Amino acid sequence: MSNPSSKFLRVKCSCGEEQVVFGKTASRVKCGSCKKLIAKPSGGKTVVLAKVEEVL
Ligand SMILES: [Zn+2]
């Protein structure tokens, strides 16, 4: 069974900045441009707070 949470996700912040985050991040991920929180760890997987553009 594939686990999509273990992949990389390309997310797009509301400011337009795109960033690649790991599907199982252990730390909070902030946008490199506007410093807004775009992903955070939750129960072993990543909760993406920005728009997911693509699963890599
Ligand atoms: Zn941003």
Characterization of the model:
The chain has no helices and 6 strands. The chain is mostly beta strands. It has a single domain (4-55), classed as Single Sheet (N-terminal domain of TfIIb), CATH 2.20.25.100. The chain is globular and about 25 Å long. The protein starts with 7 loop residues before the first strand and ends with a strand. The structure holds zinc ion.
Which key phrases capture this entry?
56 residues; mainly beta; N-terminal domain of TfIIb; globular; binds zinc ion
Which whole number gives the mean pLDDT? 90
CATH topology: N-terminal domain of TfIIb
Structural class from helices and strands? Answer: mainly beta
Largest sheet: 3 strands, antiparallel
Any chance you could write out the topology, listing elements then pairs?
Blueprint: E1 8-12, E2 18-22, E3 29-30, E4 37-42, E5 45-48, E6 51-55
Antiparallel strand pairs: 1-2, 1-6, 3-4, 4-5
Zinc ion binds next to loops.
Provide a short characterization of the protein structure.
By secondary structure, the chain is mainly β.
